[in-house]
């Protein structure tokens, strides 16, 4: 009798068929819909493939396990700190970053998935290591770019704490939107920008 394979058990990609972008997009939408509905623990790749209207082979040609699919799709969804264009000031860069994060956190699927992901990370050291080793590294690297520009402009000391900055930018918004279900508007984001700048020892945020 064959032992049933778990969705978290990696399997080699099946075949060498061309990976059609439309199929990948359908699988991505199906993944987040199934995840939001059932949670990570009960998430089934068979259900994802069924919702996407494709065969399981199409899914396993792309990802060898549930965890591999989740990590890859989270990276593509850009849940880390976004790349922010140089606005000419740390205040402008930070305000742009907060606007991006606020739009992301206001998405209904994101608000349902992220708390479940964080809970699952406490239960699964392997998942936690994968998330921290990829998404959080990206987050810190992008935050470092913003701070490096500020140091070059003379807005911050070279010893500015990158991790504290990225935690403040993402963590405060997450608490506001996901935990307390608080409202977000331009005035709140402006005040949050000022708050973080004061904490980092930067100059006042001026509107252009």
Question: How would you summarize what this structure contains?
Answer:
The protein is mostly helical. Helices cover 65% and strands 0% of the residues.
Describe this structure in words.
By secondary structure, the protein is mainly α. It has helices at 21-38, 45-52, 56-60, 66-76, 90-105, 108-123, 125-153, 162-179, 186-200. Helix content is 65%, strand content 0%. The protein has 2 domains: 19-65, Arc Repressor Mutant, subunit A; 81-200, Tetracycline Repressor, domain 2 (Orthogonal Bundle). The chain is elongated, with a radius of gyration of 20 Å.
Tag the structure with descriptive keywords:
208 residues, Tetracycline Repressor, domain 2, elongated, 9 helices, Arc Repressor Mutant, subunit A, 65% helix, mainly alpha
């Amino acid at each position: 009798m064959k032992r049933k394979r778990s969705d978290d058990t990696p399997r080699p990609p099946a075949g060498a068929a061309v990976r059609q972008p439309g199929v990948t997009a359908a699988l991505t939408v199906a993944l987040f819909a199934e995840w939001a509905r059932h949670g990570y623990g009960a998430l089934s790749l068979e259900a994802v493939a069924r919702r996407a209207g494709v065969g399981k082979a199409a899914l396993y040609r792309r990802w060898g396990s549930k965890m591999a699919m989740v990590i890859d799709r989270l990276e593509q969804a850009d849940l880390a700190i976004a790349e922010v264009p140089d606005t000419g000031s740390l205040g402008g860069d930070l305000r742009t970053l907060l606007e991006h994060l606020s739009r992301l956190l206001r998405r209904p699927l994101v608000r349902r998935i992220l708390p479940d992901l964080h809970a699952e990370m406490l239960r699964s050291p392997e998942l936690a290591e994968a998330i921290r080793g990829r998404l959080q590294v990206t987050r810190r690297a992008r935050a470092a770019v913003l701070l490096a520009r500020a140091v070059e402009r003379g807005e911050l000391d070279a010893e500015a704490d990158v991790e504290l900055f990225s935690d403040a930018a993402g963590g405060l918004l997450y608490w506001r939107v996901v935990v307390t279900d608080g409202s977000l508007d331009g005035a709140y984001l402006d005040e949050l920008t000022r708050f973080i700048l004061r904490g980092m020892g930067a100059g006042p945020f001026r509107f252009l």
